[in-house]
Design goal:
Helix content is 8%, strand content 64%.
């Protein structure tokens, strides 16, 4: 799925790059996007208490707000309902947690004459873990700060609305504590796949 989406984004970006230049968004424009996001942690999530850790995927509604500081350059904030993940150690259930990953990015939108507008961005992710529980005892996961990258494409359905496909990468690594003792660091580093409807106003 991730490879297929990357192919779609790359093809759209190439088609747009070959088109004649035109204005995408102007300074002062704002957009609001509503959609769904899939958080897919990387396959190797580190070692906790000597056991291999695995964190499963989660799907939740998402929302984005972007303000264009200059033509084609926007400052974006990503929000979502809390994602819920199960945690496994050596394949056995070890607990679950919820997390909120607000992310701030600066995006550059490539102006062109087609209906496809690709964009790239970089930013900062903050992940807050809460409501963490485990049958093994009192489990706690520290909050995380890390860099984030953004790649996507908008398909215009009208002068003020677009369908968006995007991918994000976030560096998320947190110390984990069980009954007050540090048992290692979980490396989540997910790809976040998103589909949304974006309105310009």
């Amino acid at each position: 799925m991730k490879i297929a989406l990357l192919s779609v984004l790359a093809s759209a970006a190439l088609a747009s790059a070959l088109a004649a230049p035109a204005l995408a968004q102007s300074a002062g424009d704002m957009t609001l996007g509503f959609g769904m996001a899939v958080v897919s942690p990387k396959s190797d999530n580190g070692t906790l208490a000597g056991a291999a850790a695995t964190v499963n995927d989660s799907v939740r509604p998402s929302i984005t707000f972007e303000y264009f500081l200059r033509d084609n350059i926007g400052l974006e904030v990503l929000g979502a309902l809390p994602f819920k993940h199960s945690i496994y150690l050596n394949g056995g259930y070890a607990g679950e947690t919820k997390q909120l990953p607000p992310t701030i990015s600066v995006n550059y939108h490539f102006a062109n004459a087609s209906k496809f507008t690709p964009f790239v961005g970089v930013g900062l992710n903050y992940t807050k873990f809460f409501e963490t529980s485990s049958p093994l005892g009192d489990l706690k996961i520290d909050d995380s700060f890390g860099v984030a990258a953004h790649l996507g494409v908008d398909y215009a359905v009208s002068a003020k609305a677009a369908l968006r496909l995007d991918l994000r990468y976030a560096k998320i690594g947190s110390d984990v504590h069980l009954n007050g003792a540090n048992i290692g660091k979980v490396e989540i580093d997910p790809l976040v796949t998103g589909v949304s409807y974006v309105i310009t106003f």
